[in-house]
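Reminder to self: tokens first, then the designed residues, so the page reads top to bottom the way the pipeline ran.
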């Protein structure tokens, strides 16, 4: 039986290292952890959710796929109630504000001991800005398409450095370094969203969006292909 994993969640799994102990926070159906265990990628999985319904369905699915005894299930808001003995925290399919509140409540995560794999559904520029301000570094990020929608998945490590500029909050330096199939589509989608914001706000346009749009439309010439490939 094949674990029904979306391209979005498969992209998260690609960031998991062999033998990792994984905490899937906001696991819902639990398929990410089930897949990682049935493929022998993760050595251990903690699947947690803030709601009982999703957790029960994750337990049922783990029984169906024969990995029930290899997963610890936890009812928890973020990582509040989960054991800390994991290497990689995956948070997928949540808004940037939820991810920020999960990280805010767990300063103990700020350590080279932990790696975060984040797949954010909304307010992604705000999340990137927060991460950099707090000392988290987006070490890798990939753009992908799932159905009609564009997403990114980021690998985040504890490595305090410089804050991000407005343009970098919308399109991280890590994305620029990773010329994946859907990067051009993602770039053009971001530019078109920023243009709409700036045009609608006219003379009251917020300086952050104006600056981001300026930076992203004035990338060095070696990135011209981003504009050209997806008109
Ligand atoms: C849209 S689903 C995404 C499920 C799965 N991770 C995915 O990407 O397909 C979001 C899940 O996160 C859970 N959730 C929301 N806020 C949470 C929090 N603060 N801590 C843990 N889980 C949370 C919800 O109950 C829901 O099951």
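Designed residues (231 positions):
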């Amino acid at each position: 039986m094949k674990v029904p994993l979306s391209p979005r969640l498969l992209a998260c799994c690609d960031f998991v290292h062999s033998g990792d102990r994984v905490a899937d926070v906001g696991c819902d159906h639990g398929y990410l952890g089930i897949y990682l265990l049935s493929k022998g990628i993760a050595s251990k999985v903690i699947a947690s959710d803030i709601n009982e319904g999703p957790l029960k369905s994750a337990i049922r699915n783990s029984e169906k796929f024969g990995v029930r005894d290899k997963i610890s299930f936890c009812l928890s808001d973020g990582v509040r109630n989960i054991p800390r003995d994991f290497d990689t925290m995956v948070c997928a399919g949540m808004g940037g504000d939820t991810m920020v509140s999960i990280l805010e409540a767990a300063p103990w995560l700020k350590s080279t001991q932990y790696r975060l794999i984040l797949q954010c559904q909304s307010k992604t520029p705000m999340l990137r800005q927060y991460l950099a301000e707090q000392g988290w570094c987006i070490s890798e990020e990939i753009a992908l398409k799932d159905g009609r929608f564009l997403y990114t998945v980021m690998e985040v490590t504890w490595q305090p450095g410089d804050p991000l500029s407005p343009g970098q909050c919308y399109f991280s330096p890590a994305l620029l370094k990773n010329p994946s199939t859907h990067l051009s589509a993602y770039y053009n989608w971001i530019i078109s969203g920023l243009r709409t914001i700036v045009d609608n706000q006219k003379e009251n346009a917020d300086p952050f969006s104006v600056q981001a749009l300026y930076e992203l439309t004035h990338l060095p010439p070696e990135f011209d292909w981003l504009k050209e490939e997806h008109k």
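Residues 1 and 65 are 8 Å apart (CA to CA).
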